[in-house]
Amino acid sequence: xxxxxxxxxxxxxIAESATxxxxxxxxxxxxxxxxxxxxxxxxxxxxxxxxxxxxAIAAARQPKFHRYSPAGGLPELKQAVAEKTKRDSGYxxxxxxxxxxxxxxxxxxxxxxxxxxxxxxVLVPTPYWTTYPEAIRLAGGVPVEVFAGPEQGYLxxxxxxxxxxxxxxxxxxxxxxxNPTGAVYSPEQVAxxxxxxxxxxxxxxxxxxxxxxxxxxxxxxxxxxxxxxxGDKVVILNGVAKTYAMTGWRVGWMxxxxxxxxxxxxxxxxxxxxxxxxxxxxxxAAVSGPLTxxxxxxxxxxxxxxxxxxxxxxxxxxxCPTPKGAFYAYADVRGLLGKEIGGVRPAxxxxxxxxxxxKVEVAVVPGEAFGPSGYVRLSYALGDEDxxxxxxRLQEFLGTAK
Length: 402
Fold this sequence. Notes:
Layout: H1 9-12, H2 18-31, E1 37-38, H3 50-60, H4 75-89, E2 98-101, H5 103-115, E3 121-126, H6 131-138, E4 142-147, H7 158-164, E5 169-175, H8 187-199, E6 203-207, H9 223-226, E7 234-239, E8 252-255, H10 258-271, H11 277-288, H12 292-313, E9 328-332, H13 349-360, E10 362-363, E11 365-366, E12 375-379, H14 384-398
Parallel strand pairs: 1-10, 3-4, 3-5, 5-6, 6-7
Antiparallel strand pairs: 2-8, 7-8, 9-12, 11-12
Helix pairs in contact: 3-11, 4-11, 5-6, 5-10, 12-14
């Protein structure tokens, strides 16, 4: 009998989440007493608003929430998500079109798993969030990268998408505002891309988790409403993590046609059953409540965004377009590669990120996590003082490049 590998090929092929890996290393160094500044994880530094926490406490005291609940989500939360989607995206759905998931990541995977057959292709605008291609591959699909660089504001065009289209293409992934670049498509660009996808009879999976984080008067535009031609071939992904500083509560959702949601719910019934009821009740308070908390956070994010981009662009060899959304700066560091910095000549952004962490104890995520080498992502969802200290270290260290 031939020897077999201990780990299946399917799972062994999955890369670790680079953003979580960088964040974990930074936190481990910090726990060991090192003065590490972590720009790795996309996690607001604010506490979850009090009224949301109080709703969770109240729910924890109710015995009915100590029991199993429907795998697809509490009916009252599904109703609230439908109402919130109408309010924020202008898209009308029924509760039966909502599946509550364990964070946005579960919604991402379940969407691809429900729609993809082996060999089906997904157009992935690049730079992309590190989880998307892994979720696509795990679901049996093939991610097809469509790269847009800083010279075009990290925004892909219809011409680029058309060039990447094949007879195997089934889905277009669309993300605006974008993680990792902070790029936001204009209403006109969203409509054009949506109409193109509809004309090719593609599904569109759109991640709207950063919908409330846009700046400089740039509006959020949902492709589901900007391109009604898509009909029922659109799936919306969202959650409470970024808007309400609830990353650890693990509540997301997917919205789509009833047959897709029913199939994904069946899958979830075997994978995880219901999301924790206390978290669901906290999410209910969040999506039903005012947007005051996010508006306050956005003021801080906007201030940090401007400070970070200004500081990064003062470093010779670094170019950083001003992001219009989310809470990330995506800096082009190709001008530093091959130069001597701290006695080393990094050839890739991965080597540069490692060097920065070792020499000045600042954690950034290299471009390899999101597509091509030559870039680094920095989250500005951390305190003002840490941001200033961390960027100051980068300026001083990278300023020695020669």
